Predict the structure.
Amino acid sequence: MHLNNAGAGLMPQAVLDVVGNHLQREAEIGGYEAADEAASRVRASYEAIARLVGAGPRNVAIVENATVAFSQALSAFDFHPGDVIVTTRADYPSNQLMFLSLARRAGVEVHRAADLPEGGVDPDHLRQLAKHPRCKLVAVSWVPTNSGLVQVALQVGAVCREIGVPYLVDACQCVGQMPVDVQALQCDFLAATGRKFLRGPRGIGFLYVSDQALARGLYPLFVDLHGADWTDPDAFTLGDGARRFENWEFAYALVLGLGEAARYALTVGHEGFERAQCLAALLRERLATLPGVRVLDRGRERCAIVTIDPARRDAVKVKLALRARGINTSSADRSVGVLDMDEKGVTSVLRLSPHYYNTEEELDAAIAALSVVLSRKS
Ligand SMILES: Cc1ncc(COP(=O)(O)O)c(C=O)c1O
């Protein structure tokens, strides 16, 4: 029973076949030759990914994962001491670490907008912070990794547009879980990964870059020979489109797999999104009935990520005990969400993340198993 789709979803057979077939061709005729042979299918991958998020293929850069997508985007800004990055209290830990690294190395200030009483960022406070004359960027994890929350990413986009500040969205947990439309978001960058609710392979992700950001000439700090042309000893010209955010070496099999996963998600459509949300809501209801269990998800809008305090037990141990019973979940400790976890008064959380392919029977079985695990003395 796979209730760890926020970790990695299960690949459909079609994705597996596409990846396997390309690796087979690489072994048979050579990696570079297989890439040439697959050129039109690689282009089709860009088209499918672009369609999935409402973009054009030239606005999609395929990179290793969401973290690389995010850091490539972040590195496009020349931060100076006193510049401000505005973010939230629930942003992904690696993003927070990047901001803190920029604070340490470039003197950037990290301003985090306050939460609303019910959880989730307060867009009015964010607006106030984004109006800071030195605000260079607003960055928001639309769905944070561990809190079941859906941030008001569209409202934040409207605020950024109104003020004229660039907007970077981490949509890693969103793609494949909910509708994503970069035009509605009004974002300049959007980072995502393949392996989660999108059900693509591991080790591949993508970055959307808006026409506006491209026209401004933004490019990653360490652009390579795929993203730019070395034209003279001391000069280079940037590649066209979001390609400038990519690297030359490419996991072609995974790129094809990512494209297939995007096509699959487009076919499943909204029904899949709705079913995953319904299952998560059911799960929350049932988990709340277990003695000592506290459902930790906050915010007006919640998603298919359910987090609990497993009755003060160590979430790692609970996760492993469930796995021994054939139930996949995941756990996180405080370092994954220092602000969030301290506010909730927990040191570890158990995360259950259903997808549309899970069943109510599986949820019942997971609840029963969890009840047994928690009733035992640790
Ligand atoms: C909200 C969020 N952002 C970013 C990431 C990082 O994704 P990746 O591991 O593909 O770099 C994750 C991974 O769990 C995530 O949950």
Q: What stands out?
A: The mean pLDDT is 97. Residues 65-67, 92, 141, 144-145, 170, 172-173, 193, 205 surround pyridoxal-5'-phosphate (CB under 6 Å). The CA atoms of residues 84 and 132 lie 8 Å apart.
